[in-house]
């Protein structure tokens, strides 16, 4: 299997090299050269454990890693989850299911991909004798999950940029209280979009990227998206067969990566009714699917901070497939969007997507309604998924543990929600770096703290 850039200006790479590259040299994102058909495999996958299913799925893509090694990497990646099912599917009522994706070590769905990516990096670095400096941006959960997947590992330092004051206090503690010597959390004076722009700029500087062996953990890394495909297939196979094909996955998302993974699984042969893109008040994706206009607005801090995003980096992968792999068209769209912050899609086809928007007052209302109706406490991001559910079978993705957002939960239902993992962090010292939203500052930090052979 080869992987190509959405912008078509670099040579195809094998799986391992594409993972190590992160962002393609032409500024595009790596995608599979073709999407394999899994429709004839699904029945044989039914009943597999999560890690076994992940292995069967990844075999289709990571064909340059010996299968025995790949199986060991995947098995190790799901050892830290606190539920034996890894991604349990809870039935709330006859038509509503909750896919619990918060049982990993940092209590968020990002653990599914970043535990695996951390182990992939460790394996590939040991095989090659290379070192890397991982650079990423986070709006909350990616940073802590990436750090947990990489702290203490040999031959890798990790630099995570996050918007100062715009992540929850416990999300910040998960990034800044590890005490690991290879971890560098950097609070920037700006938004997540500012942080993400810095990351893309540094990856786009070919000389700097090569000199400092930059690697990516953001969902620009193709391994992230492929790993997230697996829990959609797992949930699909857990549903009663007569419900699976009529199910709609409802996905809280800001960066489009989470819902893109489900859509790709659908393109590979997992037949479902569709996907609902659930946004908070930062609703660029909601506006896109309603109007066909992709236009940046102002980022507004919300109760669901991991979705406080306007520029959805993974949307470029969707454009690539939606435009029939026309890389010239992708380059045109992305250049226009970069220049003007806007693109109008003519005859926009939303495919299997719908969208809902949920402001802060509705987030609290949905938390309260779910608790009163089902006795289930959900976090603010998951709450966006319960906005205007249609009357069909719905699988809502629960993306984070509610204990990460205790103030919002307390305000909504007058309940304290705690996690021993998070309570222990409150006793530790916060260690972080601070700087302005300027790529030059980050360059200097990497030059000073980065690892080199």
TrEMBL record:
Cofactor(s), by name: pyridoxal 5'-phosphate
GO MF terms, alphabetically ordered: threonine synthase activity
EC nos: 4.2.3.1
Name of the molecule in the record: Threonine synthase
Enzyme class: lyase
Pathway assigned in UniProt: Amino-acid biosynthesis; L-threonine biosynthesis; L-threonine from L-aspartate: step 5/5
Substrates-to-products reaction catalysed: O-phospho-L-homoserine + H2O = L-threonine + phosphate
Domain of life: Bacteria
Residue ranges of every copy of the Tryptophan synthase beta chain-like PALP domain listed in the record: 95-326
UniProt KW Ligase keyword: no
Matching Pfam families: PALP, THR4_C, Thr_synth_N
Swiss-Prot/TrEMBL keywords: Amino-acid biosynthesis, Lyase, Pyridoxal phosphate, Threonine biosynthesis
Species: Intestinicryptomonas porci
Record SUPFAM superfamilies: Tryptophan synthase beta subunit-like PLP-dependent enzymes
Keyword Iron recorded: no
Record-stated family: Belongs to the threonine synthase family.
Domain Threonine synthase N-terminal intervals: 2-78
């Amino acid at each position: 299997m080869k992987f190509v850039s959405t912008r078509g200006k670099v040579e195809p790479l094998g799986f391992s090299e594409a993972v190590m590259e992160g962002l393609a040299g032409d500024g595009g994102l790596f995608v599979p050269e073709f999407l394999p058909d899994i429709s004839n495999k699904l029945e044989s996958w039914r009943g597999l454990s999560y890690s076994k299913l992940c292995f069967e799925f990844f075999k289709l893509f990571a064909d340059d890693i010996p299968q025995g090694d790949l199986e060991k990497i995947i098995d190790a990646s799901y050892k830290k989850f606190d539920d034996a099912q890894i991604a349990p599917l809870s039935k709330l009522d006859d038509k509503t299911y909750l896919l619990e994706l918060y049982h990993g070590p940092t209590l968020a769905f990002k653990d599914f991909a970043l535990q695996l990516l951390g182990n992939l990096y460790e394996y590939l670095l040991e095989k090659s004798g290379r070192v890397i400096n991982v650079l990423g941006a986070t709006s909350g959960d990616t940073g802590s999950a990436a750090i947990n997947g990489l702290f203490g590992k040999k031959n890798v330092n990790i630099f995570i940029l996050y918007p100062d004051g715009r992540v929850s206090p416990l999300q910040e503690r998960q990034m800044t209280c590890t005490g690991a010597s290879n971890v560098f959390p950097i609070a920037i004076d700006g938004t997540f979009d500012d942080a993400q722009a810095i990351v893309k700029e540094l990856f786009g500087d070919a000389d700097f990227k090569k000199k400092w062996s930059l690697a990516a953990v953001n969902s620009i890394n193709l391994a992230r998206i492929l790993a997230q495909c697996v829990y959609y297939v797992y949930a699909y196979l857990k549903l009663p067969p007569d419900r699976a094909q009529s199910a709609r996955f409802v996905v809280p998302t800001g960066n489009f990566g989470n819902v893109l993974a489900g859509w790709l699984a659908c393109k590979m042969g997992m037949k479902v009714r569709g996907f609902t893109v659930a946004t908070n008040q930062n609703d660029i994706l909601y506006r896109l699917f309603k109007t066909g206009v992709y236009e940046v607005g102002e980022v507004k801090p919300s109760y669901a901070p991991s979705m406080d995003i306007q520029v959805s980096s993974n949307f470029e992968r969707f454009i690539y497939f939606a435009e029939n792999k026309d890389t010239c068209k992708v380059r045109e769209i992305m250049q226009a969007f970069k220049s003007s912050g806007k693109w109008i899609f003519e005859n926009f086809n939303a495919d299997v997507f719908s969208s809902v928007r949920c402001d802060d007052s509705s987030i609290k209302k949905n938390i309260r309604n779910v608790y009163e109706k089902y006795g289930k406490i959900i976090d603010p991001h998951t709450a966006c998924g319960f906005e205007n559910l249609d009357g069909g079978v719905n699988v809502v993705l629960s993306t984070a543990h509610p204990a990460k957002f205790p103030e919002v939960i307390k305000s909504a239902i007058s309940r304290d929600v705690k996690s021993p993992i998070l309570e222990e962090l409150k006793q530790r010292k916060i260690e972080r770096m601070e700087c302005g939203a300027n790529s030059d500052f980050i360059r200097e930090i990497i030059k000073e703290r980065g690892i080199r052979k």
